[in-house]
Design a protein that fits this description.
Layout: E1 3-8, H1 17-27, E2 31-34, H2 43-53, E3 58-65, H3 71-84, E4 89-94, H4 98-103, H5 111-126, E5 131-134, E6 139-143, E7 155-158, H6 162-171, E8 174-177, H7 183-200, E9 207-215, H8 220-230, E10 241-242, H9 245-258, E11 262-267, H10 274-285
Parallel strand pairs: 1-2, 1-11, 2-3, 3-4, 4-7, 7-8, 8-9, 9-10, 9-11
Antiparallel strand pairs: 5-6
Length: 300
Amino acid sequence: MTGLGAVFRPQLPPERLRAVARLADAVGLEELWLWEDCFLEGGVSTAAAALAWTERVRVGIGLLPVPLRNVAVTAMEAASLERMFPGRATLTVGHGVQDWMGQVGARAASPLTLLGEHLDALRALLRGERLSVGGRYVKLTDVALDWPPAQPVPVLAGATGPRTLHLSGARADGTLLTAATSPDGVRRARRIVDEARAEAGRGGAHRIVVYLLAATGPDAASRLRAELAAEGLAAAHGVGVAGDAGTVAEAVRRLAGAGADTVVLQPTGDEPDPEGFVRFVAEEVRPLVPQAPHRTPLTW
């Protein structure tokens, strides 16, 4: 059974979010995902607004770059979202784009060490623990949340390379994969994650979420080709899809068959009708994809 969502891309101005989020709620979209890309829109601010404007749609932040964030602040914001909107926010943290991190003076010498320390501390704080940590990057002295969430909040890690995928399996609750991930890439990611979880002695589910670049409409194929070329993915096999609902649903099913729990359809940056894209995902693609059962905040 496969979860399905759509991305509100930050190439759209922030004032467009309200209409898109309300439409997503109205048409029954399961998940609306937001990005914190430099230097476009903030992830937590847009997620909080989208959650406040809606009643049921789940909102994912994919992702918060850990070099920009003190882990205590990340925990405070995640706990606040969970207490105000229980079970509706999905938090993802990751390395961030290293060139962007360099632009703001936050580039870490060891991104993997930073992400691991951030994940460990963040998940512990969201469990209500009191921490004193003296890591290479994360340093806390007697820190605990005064308003921890009623239940632990699952934290995903954004990952591409094998070392980060292994880290995510060992220390995160789920993994977010980019739109450059083919079905074979999902299989590799799932294998690495599962191996890391076994090595770490971790049980339970580990959610794999993957973006799928998608375009529909008369000019869908040309828009998809242009975006793939701009991203250096023109020769990539099994990446992106253009066509009608049946064609897009088949691409979703391929990713699900490879091990994805949730597929989030990512419109092209020049999508002419963001509201129409959300309606397309919810009303045309969703009926063609086996639907995931309702998930609790702890297990999705």
